[in-house]
Amino acid sequence: MAKKNENAPILALRQAVFGDVPALVDLTARIYTPEWGHSAEMLRSQQTHFPEGQFVVEYEGNIVGYCATFRIDESVALKPHTWMQITGGGMASRHNPDGNWLYGMEVVVHPDYRGMRIGQRLYQARKRLCTDLKLRGITFGGRVPGLSRNIQRYGSAEAYVQAVVEGRRRDPTLSFQLANDFEIIGLLRAYVPTDYESLGYAAHLVWRNPALLDQPDIPAVKSTRNLPDSVRVATVQYLQRRIKSFDEFVTHVEYFTDIAADYSADFVTFPELITLQLLSIENEELSPVDTIRKLSHYTPQVKELFSRLAMNYNINIIAGSHPTEQENGDIHNVCYVCLRDGSIHEREKLHPTPSERNVWNVTGGDTAATILTDCGPIGVMICYDAEFPEVAKHLVDQGALILFVPFCTDVREGYLRVRYCSQARAIENQCYVVLSGNVGNLPGVNNFDIQYGQSCILTPSDFPFARDGVAADSTPNIETVLFADLRLESLAMARNAGAVQNLKDRRFDLYETRWLRHPR
User: Fold this and answer.
1) CA 88, 93, 98, 101: dihedral to nearest 10 degrees?
2) Count of beta carbons in the 10 Å neighbourhood of residue 297
3) How far apart are CA 409 and CA 407, in angstroms?
4) Among 204, 278, 459, 480, which residue's CB has the most CB atoms within a 10 Å radius?
């Protein structure tokens, strides 16, 4: 049987093409009935007028989400209108190539996939398009489907909407829009007269491009990458606690993934050897080597868990690390990086510690490649790997902008070695470094040591960054989650025009680092 290519995305967001039209006709008919769904002519017209503004989400080759946009002038977009008027009957014929606002014409999500944050992905795509085009913002008429059920209680559409805005009432659609940073500038009457749940009303919503709001112009740094201005990262300082089943482990991990996603993080990082917690389920008296091999039996469940969470919560997960038995019988300490497009990437610890080698018989991997994500290339260094400058340099030479360091240390001295070296890697490679560690202990659990951890998010040391080169820090040995917004443009500016320019100033005429190729 052919081996499944886990690096291949199974969930992808892309621009719509003409070949998608039949599937989109079926999708909109399922949502609105065949009579009111979008016709093939409407869908082709939308792509003809503004192809870069039409997006679809594919899951396992099937289209499960779709959104349509076009450009329009502020003088038209922010005045009262109906859906038919402003969209040209759904054809996007009002598209103005010089319009300074993006109009959200449609968002549709297949009902069987509404737990995977498909809508959120489509809204993020719109926001990226808006910022890339340097438009003033996004506007549209948003449904208020809870209005018909509550009109008698509130007496008017205005009163109902105000209750939703103030948090006294939840509307299934409007509350979602508000949570995605849209604001209401008014109500649109008879926006879609056949929307009986909304009584024909729509909330006139806007999202204003934050890059254009009273911000001074920043000199552009040329780049071949089309990357977001800012990446939000989360790192989990994870408390090791006794559990009775794998399902209980799932509950804890999903909780932190949900938290990070609720704060709109692009990445969430878990600690090295987070799955050692699974030893407390049976707690058998085995030799250390046999214990690690038994732990490796959980590998399929671990990979499925983190991949599912990445897609369902629309977040890229650095899933700590997990001891994994190789085809030749060796045990490697493997970090599974599960992206929100459904792809799974494996990165092995290159440098096992003396304890890992001598007690658990863990051997090191032999490659360190970057992983291309929707937020740019990233690299992974597992704990001890961060103490070898060659690893970080190799990853940054491949284009890595953020390095993730899942770690597991028993005492403060060991933790500080990892932290001080990670800070040095951030400075000498002018990149961001994110650390995630375990805290807590499991008394009475065989082959489990004590834990000392202080997760943090580190930056280079220069004017565009945090004062002490620390974007976020934690209290030692307490379970918590850290967040930081990391500006990729700041890295580009530092690398090109910083007070020091480590990447440019290396003396290649004096020294070099060469990585050897190993047969796979």
Assistant:
1) 40
2) 10
3) 6
4) 459
Residue 491 burial (10 A CB sphere; 0-12, 13-18, 19+): buried
Closest Cα to residue 133, out of 67, 56, 70? 70
Task: Going residue by residue through the chain, which has 520 residues, state the pLDDT in tens, using 9 for 90 and above.
Answer: 455 678 888 999 999 999 999 999 999 999 988 888 999 999 999 999 999 999 999 999 999 999 999 999 999 999 999 999 999 999 999 999 999 999 999 999 999 998 899 999 999 999 999 999 999 999 999 999 999 999 999 999 999 999 999 999 999 999 989 988 899 999 999 999 999 999 999 999 999 987 774 433 333 333 434 678 899 999 999 999 999 999 999 999 999 999 999 999 999 999 999 999 999 998 888 888 888 899 999 999 999 999 999 999 999 999 999 999 999 999 999 999 999 999 999 999 999 999 999 999 999 999 999 999 999 999 999 999 999 999 999 999 888 999 999 999 999 999 999 999 999 999 999 999 999 999 998 887 776 778 999 999 999 999 999 889 999 999 999 999 999 999 988 988 888 788 998 888 888 788 878 888 765 5
3-state helix, strand, coil in the chain (%, to 5): 35, 25, 40
Give the β-pairing of 322-325 and 376-380: unpaired
CA distance 417 to 386: 9
Give the residue numbers annotated as catalytic, written as ranges. 272, 349, 383
Is residue 101 within 8 A of residue 79, CB to CB? The reply is no
Token pair belonging to 154: 């509130």
Question: How is 154-204 classified by DSSP, letter by letter?
Answer: HSSHHHHHHHHHTTSS--TTHHHHHHTT-EEEEEETTSSTT-TTTTT-EEE
**In whole angstroms, what separates CA 319 from the centre of its chain?**
13
| Residues forming a β-bridge with 470 | 458
Kindly give, in sequence order, each residue whose CB lies less than 8 Å from that of residue 134, ignoring residues fewer than 6 positions away. Answer: 209, 211, 212
H/E segment holding residue 294: helix 288-296
The pTM score is 0.85
- What's the CA gap between 78 and 188, in Å, rounded? 10
Pairing of strands 230-239, 432-439: parallel
H helix or E strand, kind and range, residue 290: helix 288-296
* Contacts by residues 1-9 (CB-CB < 8 Å, ≥ 24 positions apart): 6/303, 6/343, 6/344, 6/345, 6/346, 7/343, 7/344, 7/345, 8/343, 9/339, 9/341, 9/342, 9/343
Query: Where do we find the tokens 């878990």?
Result: 270
Going along the chain from its start, the domains and CATH numbers come out as 11-212 (3.40.630.30), 230-497 (3.60.110.10)
Q: Return the bridge partners of 332, or none.
A: 324
Residue 145 vs residues 1, 51, 192, 230, 470: alpha-carbon distances, Å: 49, 30, 12, 34, 45
